[in-house]
Design brief:
With 108 residues, the protein is an all-alpha fold. It is 83% helix and 0% strand.
């Protein structure tokens, strides 16, 4: 499973980033951070996107809490990098990366 998590992590970082690059080129909002006000307005522009964003934000919060606890138990290397990558690029790549590092640690 270790390498499956790694592959899913790579795909989870690449595919959303493709859409971010297209949006960045189209709007000039580089990586959606340059104009954070516009990014937030679009993320919560209607009820459907608000539902998805709130769900995602709570999922990310739960991931951070759970991974913090697991890190205390298993002492996973580079945990700070997983959290940083999750904040910068999203949960689609960060969560499987955490699972890969956890599996790598447990298998040893």
């Amino acid at each position: 499973m270790k390498y499956t998590y790694l592959i899913v992590s790579i795909i989870g970082f690449i595919i959303p980033t493709i859409f971010v690059v297209f949006e960045s080129l189209e709007t000039g909002n580089i990586l959606l951070y340059y104009d954070s006000t516009a990014t937030l307005q679009h993320m919560f522009s209607n009820r459907i996107s608000t539902i998805f964003m709130i769900d995602l934000l709570f999922t990310v919060l739960a991931f951070f809490l759970w991974s913090y606890r697991e890190n205390k138990k298993d002492s996973i290397k580079y945990m700070y990098a997983v959290w940083l990558l999750t904040l910068l690029f999203g949960l689609a790549g960060g969560f499987p990366l955490f699972l890969y590092l956890k599996e790598k640690r447990v298998v040893r």
